Amino acid sequence: MANKRANGEGSIVKRMRNGKQVGWRASITIGYNDNGKPIRKEFEGKTQSDVKNKLEQYKKEMLLGTISSDDKITVSEWFYTWLYDHRIQDLKPKSFEKYEGIYRNYIKDSELGKVKLKDLRVTHIQRYYNKLQKVDNKPPSTIKGINTRLKPCLGEAEKQGYIQKNYCKMVTLPKDNNTKTIKVLSKEEQQKFIEAIKGHKLEMLFLVALGTGLRLGELLGLKWSDIDFNTGMLTVNRTLSRSKNPVTGVYEILEQTPKTKNSNRTIPIPNDILNKLKEHKKNQNKQRLFIGEAYINNNYVFTDDIGNSIDDKRPGRNLTSILKKLNIEPIKFHALRHTYATRLFEANIPPKTVQILMGHYDISITMDIYTHVMDDTKLEAVEKLNSIFII
């Protein structure tokens, strides 16, 4: 009688269809049933190296004990393992928070999360998304956010041979029929706001936001060494944010590199704001001398009275309060960035230049966000055509 193949061994063969090779198949024995027949797990791929990598990775996982040989691991268990073992090193804290939030709110203890990874199919995901939309009244943006973060998770599962395909790529996502409107301050509202913030603790932060289009994290991370008063230029080198430490669970103030390589940019500062920044620096130096050794000198441009970085929730709350007093519809702090871009377009600054100043990695992002400004430009173009085509 032939000897049984030992658990953990694997074999790789050509995958044939109608007499023609269509790929490769690897298989591994993971146990035996009650009749003594081997229970095998299979992996498929286009090339021999693909299936070999999947097989070796699976064997490695079995040895490490991160996946059981009887494949009882669920989608929820895999998402947790993938997030904390594979992605935690690559994700910035804010991004990790979003992934962890998706896991906690939509994967853990959900009907989708309880499905065994080996049994997962498109139907499971589609049915869950449909329920979220039609029963739980979740907006399309939420469902798309779940799928965006589940996709790389299942991509790794496919790579390691736990599933045959990344089923997130096959679902039908709901369409968002709501037209996205970008709220900005009009020129008149902007002027009222500038008048209202004179003497306010965050006056300079608001002015620099309106005059440079920096993101809130970029403003909070701005240091005096980033400002060249001779050339009137400002360089974005870092961001500052309050994020939860994925290991300790404690919120910390973190300095990080900018959002993308395009976010690391140099921007001209309007002359009036540059002069106000010089005065702001003098006042901060006086405050530092007054406080003495108790002052926390991290060289940040925007701080509280003793040098601490500003709470990232404070600017938004103050902005809302000020606008309400002015009877102006409140906007989010990020809308000051949109206001800056709108003023650039209104001044007929070329879109490519706006893209560079805003730090967008793709000009399509710039154009998609600011199409509302383009309406006036279209009317101007038609008026010019009217003067040309005189019949």
Alpha-beta classification: alpha+beta
* Helix/strand order, N-terminal first: EEEHHHHHHHHEEEEEHHHHHH
Describe the main β-sheet briefly.
Answer: 3 strands, antiparallel
Mind telling me the CATH class of the largest domain? Answer: Mainly Alpha
**How many DSSP helices?**
14
The largest sheet has its strands arranged as 1-2-3
Q: Give me the CATH fold name of the largest domain.
A: hpI Integrase, Chain A
Report mean pLDDT, rounded to a whole number.
Answer: 84
The rounded Rg comes to 28 Å
Which CATH architecture of the largest domain would you pick?
Orthogonal Bundle
Span between termini: 98 Å
Instruction: Tell me the number of structural domains.
Output: 3
Morphology call: elongated
Question: Going by CATH, what is the homologous superfamily of the largest domain?
Answer: Intergrase catalytic core
Helical proportion, percent range? 40-55%
Low-confidence residue ranges: 1-8
Strand segment count? 8
What proportion strand?
5-15%
Function: Site-specific tyrosine recombinase, which acts by catalyzing the cutting and rejoining of the recombining DNA molecules.
Protein name: Phage integrase, N-terminal SAM-like domain
Keywords: DNA integration, DNA recombination, DNA-binding
GO molecular function: DNA binding
